[in-house]
């Protein structure tokens, strides 16, 4: 995965927003679905990857029973490792059917999880800029 990378001499933030997520809660084996926002700052080598590969990354980890927190971390960790990126951010917003159609039955409650690595973890300003872009509508 993420074997296609390009030289682009681009060292600024790249973000793909609103990637559809469909996964399965490992507790109840019921779907949870929503969107993922995945971004990174390339390393000093300026190496980037194909945009579709970010969506593929989400897809690979979503296709197994999951908890949303682990799914979010796995996306961030793999991206960081494969791209040798300066920073990575993954934010997921999902609705869990196990909370909607059974149990507490709260329709429309959305769970937001984030995983930040590198510059997004160490620099609050960098993280705030990324969150502003993620939330821009
Ligand atoms: N943190 C987290 N919890 C999840 C996720 N998906 C489902 N859950 C929760 O996992 C918990 C499992 O709780 P249990 O007490 O074992 O199961 P339960 O008796 O069916 O719980 P209720 O859903 O409250 O009826 C529930 O609170 C679910 O809402 C997830 O992605 N992340």
UniProtKB/TrEMBL annotation:
Top-rank EC class of the record's enzyme: hydrolase
Known EC number: 3.5.4.16
Keywords: Hydrolase, One-carbon metabolism
Gene3D superfamilies linked to this entry: 3.30.1130.10
Family annotation (SUPFAM superfamilies): Tetrahydrobiopterin biosynthesis enzymes-like (SSF55620)
Domain (GTP cyclohydrolase I): residue spans on this chain: 2-134
Protein's pathway: Cofactor biosynthesis; 7,8-dihydroneopterin triphosphate biosynthesis; 7,8-dihydroneopterin triphosphate from GTP: step 1/1
InterPro entries cross-referenced by the UniProt entry: GTP-CH-I_C/QueF, GTP_CycHdrlase_I, GTP_CycHdrlase_I_CS, GTP_CycHdrlase_I_dom
Catalytic activity reported: GTP + H2O = 7,8-dihydroneopterin 3'-triphosphate + formate + H(+)
Name of this chain's protein: GTP cyclohydrolase 1
Source species of the chain: Paractinoplanes durhamensis
